[in-house]
Amino acid sequence: MKTLMRLCRLPALLLTGLCLMGTAAMAEPAPSASGSPANSVAKPYGSGWDCDKGFRETDGACASIDLPKNSHLTGGAYGAGWECNYGFDRAGAGCAAVTVPANAHLDGSGTRWDCDRGFARDGQRCLAIKVPANGYLTNSNYGDGWACERGFRPERGLCLKIVLPKNAYLTDSASGPGWACERGHAPKANACAKIVLPKFAHLNSSGDGWQCDRPYRQAGGACVAP
What we know:
By secondary structure, the protein is mostly beta strands. It has helices spanning 2-8, 12-27; strands spanning 40-42, 49-51, 55-58, 61-64, 71-73, 82-84, 88-91, 94-97, 104-106, 113-115, 119-122, 125-128, 135-137, 146-148, 152-155, 158-161, 168-170, 179-181, 185-188, 191-194, 201-203, 210-212, 217-219, 222-224. 10% of the residues lie in helices and 36% in strands. A two-stranded antiparallel sheet has the order 1-2. Strands 3-4 form a two-stranded antiparallel ribbon. β23 (217-219) and β24 (222-224) form a beta hairpin. The longest helix is centred in the N-terminal third of the chain and has 16 residues, at 12-27. Residues 1-5 and 12-31 have low confidence and may be disordered.
């Protein structure tokens, strides 16, 4: 390089072309000894190179990634090379803050929101859930957001007391009357009727009916010999 500068001090008419070539060579970034471009590193195995973090391969060179406000580098080889910070979402070529309404919070992704417990989503707002007497809040995002206490059943937005007939017990089913008959009894209207066993019969496994002893077979309401 010193030799080139000394040559450039000679008469301009003699070495004009040489000086211009040398100046152009000084202005261009020289590749590394391995042949990889600036801001890159050789692959640990085989040949080739990868751009440093914060740079992306473009036409054989490593160009700096334009990082918008409220974002961070991903280090991935695909995509834009960046993603929005928690609480921000992609908006065009930038990141916009996620608008969280009152009585709501950001979800795990940081790009959406959920209503707080005790509130239900209504468009872009969260409204308080009205829990009736003898009811309680649930953690479900579906339905009314509340359920009735044991011994009560939902009807028209209320929790009505279940009238338990004799020989019956409460169930946890959300459908039906909210009760079932004890073993040996069967539902009849709003009561539990005792099951009358014919001769040579016994209660079935569920206890709400009967079947014939072996080898007898059912014939109407009786058990007859085969």
